[in-house]
Specification:
With 205 residues, the protein is of the alpha+beta class. The protein has three domains: 61 residues, Nucleic acid-binding proteins (OB fold (Dihydrolipoamide Acetyltransferase, E2P), Beta Barrel), CATH 2.40.50; 69 residues, 5' to 3' exonuclease, C-terminal subdomain (DNA polymerase, domain 1, Orthogonal Bundle), CATH 1.10.150; 44 residues, Ubiquitin-associated (UBA) domain (Helicase, Ruva Protein, domain 3). Helices cover 42% and strands 19% of the residues. The chain has a five-stranded mixed beta barrel. The N and C termini lie far apart (37 Å).
Length: 205
């Protein structure tokens, strides 16, 4: 089991990144919070906490910037009907503390705004997660320093809007939803990460 990796990010296109550790490149599906926390300095090492998912058709390594976030991801996987893609969308759109507030308040509407989460899944999430959240450490344990993306990291040459569109689609949002979420940001000078952050925040109302 790979619990964490420490290395340098050599390529990224949210939600995917390539982390080089001692000459070996690890492909990860990373949460948006991980991208928000990438260091500005290209030579700064990054620690990513990981969770390995093995299926018949794929083996995927998921990466998180904190133990708290990975803990929530793992708890979500225990809920009936929630897979890794949906769990990654949840932890990308909100913090563990925010999620806990929605669950404790029984806020079905807020949870239903997460891509792939319908009313029944949100209700099931609330019922099954209420007791489990008591064991989750909601204190922030960040694995990286700094909160800006690294302009020196290799990325596919696309506009910030195109990259944000790709990231939101990978998280499960539909084209109509993505267009609505990004429309207010089209003429902004925001970075990809900040554009995604604002779009996700707006989607949760």
């Amino acid at each position: 089991m790979i619990g964490s990796l420490h290395g340098k990010v050599t390529w990224k296109q949210p939600p995917e990144l390539l982390l080089e550790v001692n000459g070996v490149g690890y492909e990860l599906q990373a949460s948006m919070n991980t991208f928000y926390n990438l260091p500005q300095d290209a030579d700064t090492g990054v620690t990513v906490y990981t969770h390995f998912v093995v299926r018949e058709d794929a083996q995927t390594l998921f990466g998180f910037c904190s133990l708290e976030e990975r803990g929530l991801f793992r708890l979500l996987l225990k809920v009936n009907g929630i897979g890794p893609k949906m769990a990654l969308a949840v932890v990308s759109g909100m913090t563990a503390a925010e999620f806990a507030r929605f669950v404790q308040a029984g806020d079905v509407a807020a949870l239903s705004r997460i891509p792939g989460v319908g009313k029944k899944t949100a209700e099931r999430m609330i019922v099954e997660m209420r007791d489990r959240l008591t064991g989750l450490d909601t204190g922030s344990v960040t694995g990286t320093a700094g909160h800006q993306s690294n302009p020196a990291i290799i990325s596919i040459p696309q506009s910030a809007l195109d990259e944000a569109t790709h990231a939101l689609a990978a998280l499960g949002y539909k084209p109509v939803q993505i267009s609505r979420m990004l429309a207010p940001l089209e003429n902004s000078d925001l970075s990809v990460e900040e554009m995604i952050r604002q779009a996700l925040r707006a989607s949760l109302g």
